[in-house]
Hints:
Elements: H1 15-22, H2 39-61, H3 65-69, E1 75-77, E2 82-83, E3 92-94, E4 99-102, E5 109-113, H4 126-143, E6 148-150, E7 164-166, E8 168-171, E9 177-179, H5 180-186
Parallel strand pairs: 2-3, 5-7
Antiparallel strand pairs: 1-6, 3-4, 4-5, 6-8, 8-9
Amino acid sequence: MGKVIPFRKRTNWTKADAYALQSGKRRGGGGPKPPRSGGSAARLGRIAAILVIAAVILVSTWWQADEMFGPPEGSQVSQTFGICGAKGRGSYCTSDGDTVTIGYGKTARRIRLTGYDAPEIEGACPAESAKAQEAETALRNWLNAGPFEWDGGTQPPRDQYGRELRYAWRTAADGSVEYLATHMIDAGLASGDGWGQSADWCG
Length: 203
């Protein structure tokens, strides 16, 4: 009969040994694999990219909200618009295809009509200047076609040039609504004013 070796109870068992046993590794044979680096950063990067895309879409389509949900509460305008700079013009006039002026001199109010972007009178090329003249005429004809409304109230937002920002529309007797921005864009005299919607008038 062989020699019987008595069982000895281990007295120096540590938490590290318990962890190694639980993870299936012997003590001294290497610890658990370190966490992968960059995982959290990659996830944050994807979230940031999604937020940027969402913000771009929101900025580029904010003006269309009125068309989707109906016009906001606005104030009615029924004055006749002339041409700014013309001799004997009234206090209401059009400066270009998306800007009107009310009043004279330093106290005049300049209003940028939003939802579209018309070509510039002093354009980058003769073709843009010619299109800008068409846009100014089309805007004046629309404004003078009858009473219309614009938003902003008595405290409208302003752009970096201090111009009031207002969105204009006209409601017909049958309840249908015509938006100035849509009218100008459909006529080929303006582009959307959202991100990435500008037109090349010289192309």
